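cron nightly-structures :: item 1 of 1
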Amino acid sequence: MGQHHTGAADEGPIVCATTVLVTVADDPPVPLPAQLRYTATDPYAVCMSLGAPSAPSVDWVFARSLLAQGLCRPAGYGDVVVIPRHRGRQDTVGVLLRTRHGAAVLEVASRAVTAFLHRTDALVPPGTEHRHIDLDRVVHHLTAGRE
């Protein structure tokens, strides 16, 4: 199984630094720095990192297609749900994150998400993700530790 890379796969990650409003339970929203990250080496996923300047970040990884669909209509179920025009605000996207300990809603500027997704689409157009998967690496990872 040979590696199949395009030139785009060699580019560094796409990073969008932004601020999100985090709401937990009935507490007032708290602004936190956040980053959206995407790499061609994990072409189906985006990572959202949340963190205060003095604390380690918390990373959530979910489907890029979920984030894109959530700009137009509610998308997802389970641990991550993306909701357009959160709380009726045209300029935001809501990302509902659930764990067994509770849930939080993140409000992200729609324009930041849209700009980020345009950059990811230029690197790996939707529908071409399979061309960026390094099958040798996947097989090695799945068989690591086996005799």
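cron nightly-structures :: done
Residues 24 and 101 are 11 Å apart (CA to CA).
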